[in-house]
Amino acid sequence: MNAESTTNLKEESENCLFCKIVKGQIPADIVSQGDNWLAFRDINPQAPSHILVIPKNHVANVTECNEAAELGSLFQAASGVARDENLDQGFRLVVNTGEHGGQTVFHLHIHILGGRSLTWPPG
Ligand code: AMP
Ligand code: ZN
Known about the structure:
binds adenosine monophosphate, 4 helices
């Protein structure tokens, strides 16, 4: 990574809502965490269980993440959080990406949605 992209990433991170949650600058209803990930309840839940799982380092979205291991461990973390939330009847993992994907917070996150029967296709 060159010096310019490092500076941009630092700026993005300083203005990022989810980075502020990681740093404890904004309160969140934290469910659990690991060394590299944090899980907290969505402020506007779309299902009885609606949890977001994010990497602790700033990554804007899935296309910006070049680390297969990082993506793998994030999904593994989400799966563990769903298990601990007792979503044994099923759940959905969603990664909204970019404008058409409906992404509104530009820090990579996996939505865990569960606790009710979910319809398909999404809107
Ligand atoms: P997305 O639309 O996929 O980018 O999802 C962003 C999610 O973040 C939405 O479901 C919001 O309800 C949620 N959200 C926004 N601000 C907060 C916050 N301060 N704490 C918890 N969840 C939030
Ligand atoms: Zn961030």
